[in-house]
Amino acid sequence: VDWLPMAHQLYPDAVNHTHQVGLSVATTINWLQEEQQLPLQNVHLIGYSLGAHVAGYAGTSVRGTIGRITGLDPAGPMFEGVGDDKRLSSGDADFVDILHTYTREALGMSIGIQQPIGDIDIYPNGGDVQPGCSLREMLTSTAGGSFMDVIKCEHERAVLLFVDSLMNNEYMSLAYQCTDPERFKKGICLSCRKNRCNNIGYNTKKMRKRSNCKMYLKTRAVTPFGGIHYQMKMHVFNRKQADDADPTFHVKLYGAHNDTDDLHVD
């Protein structure tokens, strides 16, 4: 859907246009359904940033229920905390999955929406700091590099992850259901029992009756972004008093094609 002239305006004006554009998309889908017998279950809308909310408005305005909406880092300002009818939400399609890649807050708001709004909300790398997008990395990888480049890199990472799920689906990581990113980092949630893990991007599988299911995963800095999550459990038995020792551990993984740097174990 080409709505670039309406999107490239002052942000509040662009936000107001999302409803109008969503209605236009819904009108087209209704026509396809009536005149061309398009099954609504086969309709999959994919929207990035403001476009995610356009897809939400389209879903609520269609006569019937479309099959799926994928929100790629849906825009946060003027959508965070509002009612379901004023943004993309889990009721806008039979299945709504969200990729959050830039939820870091600055000046009281974040570029991407922070709250879970879909049936499944996936937060790669915690949903805030994406590998390869730090200012230092941007300075070394490009001729210039600025804070705007960092914002663009992290916000658009959701799009790249979705494309990567089509181009390199054999390398994609699994996302794991967890209550918060800190528990995930500690390795508490690395289980696929009872459908607690899922693919990301195009290959995300519908999970019924799990509205606002938050999932996390780690990705690489470059494509293919996926990898395998390894978990190491270490049991240390110390006969000394706890305050007599302050051990530090580093782990290095050796592979067939490459080795990792030393990984600090907290």
Automatic annotation (TrEMBL):
Pfam families: Lipase (PF00151)
CDD domains assigned: Pancreat_lipase_like
Domain named PLAT: residues: 228-266
InterPro entries linked to this entry: AB_hydrolase_fold, Lipase, Lipase_N, PLAT/LH2_dom, TAG_lipase
Entry-linked PROSITE patterns: PLAT
Gene Ontology biological process terms in this record: lipid catabolic process
UniProt keyword annotations, A-Z: Secreted
Entry GO CC: extracellular space
Secreted keyword on record: yes
GO molecular function (one): lipoprotein lipase activity
Localization annotation: Secreted
Recorded superkingdom: Eukaryota
Family, per entry: Belongs to the AB hydrolase superfamily. Lipase family.
Name used for this protein in its record: Hormone-sensitive lipase
Organism taxonomic ancestry: Eukaryota, Metazoa, Chordata, Craniata, Vertebrata
